[in-house]
Amino acid sequence: MCIEKVFINMRENSEIISFSLRNSKGFGIDFLNLGGVITDILVPDKKGNIENVVLKYEDLETYVTNPSYYGAIVGRTAGRIANGTTKLNDEVLTFNKNYGVNQGHGGPNGFTFKIFNVEVHENENEVSALLSYFSKDGEEGYPGNLKVNIIYTINENNEFKITYKAVSDKDTLVNLTNHSYFNLSGNCKEDILNHYLYVNSDFLIELNNNQVPTGRLLYVENTPFDFNIAKKIGRDIDRDDPQLAIGQGYDHPWMLNNEGDLKLRLVHKESGRVMDVYTNQKSVVLYTLNFPDDKVLDCGRKPNRRDAIAIETQNPPIGEDNIFTKYSILRKGEEYSKETIYKFSILNEK
């Protein structure tokens, strides 16, 4: 196991530091204490070449603004909150808005832009980093002082696990995720459209024209959103479909089935890389980078549309008329506890 850290620069009198976690095979991650941003997930291909399988900005200082939330912890709540308001205990909560009429990804100064304290621990089987942050009562409109602990762990089986923990001194809302953009071709050599995707889900959460849930669940069978049998992401992405039109591609929450441990699989046949996703979250938002920003990537060019896919395991976003709010409620003194495991392997083509 290997641990390194490198000083980047200063922000608000705090150091921005990059940490590296590696196993004995060279698999591992690089991340920042700023927003817990995952800048690199380094994975071997079928020939043993180790490459980065998430999008990364060339200039690490871009993460101070991070317009596309690359690799970041998102909170207190992931996704949009319809009209920036909801009810909790019959009280109307009003949140800072940053996605038009909605709040998105925790608000304009959400967890993505906070400095986390980092403690690194290792043993012969795994290495982990504990990222902690104290979110004060009223931050971005959320009630309660919230203690957040997020643990990044890698092991010798080429697994990367994210564990999310939080406790509040008031009833509040919490729905944490990570916003990494995956591309298993390595070092963004090609777009995501020829990747094969499996999603263990029978129902899509319908979105309105403001891209917030209506509360209606749509059966995915015989629609472009059916990935119960693995298919290329690009096969149906441009079909004439009202939900695809709203997102200009995939930018939707799927409700995950309770049956089966494996919730999602992403495969890139040419490199042989496979990523299996396991989680106790109720849903996953998939976003095929339909609206790339103009910041240069580490591979030396600006991102193109559909260069990668964000895989955001989370509870359903809060929609119209408080729909799905119940999934984000964290009661005073109770522990929020979620985890997602990304297991990397090589495709068996026999």
UniProtKB/TrEMBL annotation:
Q: Where is the signal peptide?
A: none
> What Gene Ontology terms describe where this protein resides (cellular component)?
cytoplasm
Name listed for the protein in its UniProt record: Aldose 1-epimerase
- What InterPro entries does the database record attribute to this sequence? Ald1_epimerase_CS, Aldose_1-epimerase, Aldose_1/G6P_1-epimerase, Gal_mutarotase_sf_dom, Galactose_mutarotase-like, GH-type_carb-bd
Its recorded reaction(s) are: alpha-D-glucose = beta-D-glucose
- Choose any GO biological process term that the UniProt entry carries and state it: glucose metabolic process
Pathway per the UniProt entry: Carbohydrate metabolism; hexose metabolism
Q: What is its EC number?
A: 5.1.3.3
Question: Looking at the keywords, is Isomerase present?
Answer: yes
Residues binding beta-D-galactose: H179, S180, Y181, D251
Using the UniProt record, name the top-level EC class of this enzyme in a single word.
isomerase
Q: Would the keyword Isomerase turn up in this protein's UniProt record? A: yes
| GO molecular function annotation | aldose 1-epimerase activity; carbohydrate binding
Alphabetized, the UniProt keywords read: Carbohydrate metabolism, Isomerase
Q: Catalytic positions?
A: H179 (proton donor), E312 (proton acceptor)
**Gene3D superfamilies with a match to the protein in the record:** 2.70.98.10
